[in-house]
Amino acid sequence: MNIEYVLIVLGEPNSTFSEIIGKYFTKTKVLKKKIILIGNLKLISKQLKKLNYNLKLNLITDIKDAKKKFINMINVDLKQKKTYTKISNKSNYYIKKCFEISLKILNNNKTNCVLINGPVSKKTFLKKNYLGITEYLSHKTSSQNEAMLIYNDKLSVSPLTTHIPVKFVAKKITSEKIHNNVINLNKFYKTILKRKSKIAVLGLNPHCETIDKFSEEDEIIKPAIKKLKKKGLNINGPFSADTFFLKKKYEKI
Fold first, then answer.
1. Are residues 101 and 17 in the same domain?
2. Which domain holds residue 213?
3. N or C: where does the chain have the smaller number of CB atoms within 10 Å of the terminal CB?
């Protein structure tokens, strides 16, 4: 996948994301991809000025006009007089419009474009209709069995459950969910990253042990791993989650 464009949806206009944008692009002098912000030009300009960041934004209407040496911007209308104000549902239509524009661009440029989103409010924007932005985007793109991947070149993490209270986690873990998640991740590494995946499945209980009669490791996780091994995947586990992230541990896998 040869990435040419990076779309950044600014999200909630009254979050700290404008500061993140200012810090990152002030520090990053050389842009390897064509960066395109999607949000309100007037507001982000005022916010950056207030935070003492001097970034030049190149206003465009088509991604084909994006320039590599500039931070490009597609403007989305928003009526907000104050530079920052209290987060409310007043910005919902604006945020929705930002995502609609970005997803339309993505749909027309599937092989050379990726999306990064700024924060949104679960209370005012998602309103219990979606557990999180992952599920929101999955619905908007008609995706099935979506998987979250916190990517790093050396070690990536894919949480099996997302955006739910801890007390519900155990009930949401199934062999089928593990199977689907791993299949999706393996496909992503193979087709998009052009790399072979090496997968370690972590346990649910401390040290992968429990005093309860029902062991998620024995009844759910191990059968899923066994099934995936039969399909030829390089997968092992379950490993104890409380010690796995020690470098000497995961490098041995």
1. yes
2. 166-250
3. N
**Per-residue pLDDT tens for 39-93?**
999 999 999 999 999 999 999 999 999 998 899 999 999 999 999 999 999 999 9
- Co-location of 184 and 132 in the same domain: no
Secondary structure of the chain as H, E, C letters: CCCCEEEEECCCCCCCHHHHHHHHHHHCCCCCCEEEEEECHHHHHHHHHHCCCCCCEEEECCHHHCCCCCEEEEECCCCCCCCCCCCCHHHHHHHHHHHHHHHHHHHHCCCCEEEEECCCCHHHHHCCCCCCHHHHHHHHCCCCCCCCCECCCCCCECCCCCCCCHHHHHHHCCHHHHHHHHHHHHHHHHHCCCCCCCEEEECCCHHHCCCCCCCHHHHHHHHHHHHHHHCCCCEEEEECCCCCCCHHHHCCC
- Domain tally for the chain? 2
Asked if the structure places residue 153 within a domain, the reply is no
**Residue 159 covered by a domain:** no
Tokens of 81: 């007089």
- Look up the pTM and report it: 0.86
